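ATP-binding protein: structure, please.
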Amino acid sequence: MRIEFPGDLRAPAAARRFVDAPLRDLLDRTTRPTAEDVVLVVSELVTNAVRASADVISLSLRVDEERVEIEISDDAAGWPTPREADWEDPTGRGLAIVDELSDRWHTTELYPGKRITVTWFRNAG
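Here you go.
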């Protein structure tokens, strides 16, 4: 499944809706990852793309017996860089959330922009 949408303030909610229903049909609260984890990661990454001033954001979702994988692409400048947010900071936790909830993630440079690929292995313990 793949979708593109404008990089405006409605993008995070649109991205959550796009992945939520299919994931709830395919995953349950006892599977790994949970639908809630994937939806949260999608929301964080799309929010980062909006904050980076992306004009267009692409989202793809793949689910099979071995893994769940999402890809978020945008045309914005800049590179996702994890940082440690102070407890008073209102922002800066998105990539830490992605790192904590996923099995692996990486960024690929595009011209323009970048693609972040996030993977969960369904049989990982």
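Notes: The two ends are 27 Å apart (CA to CA).
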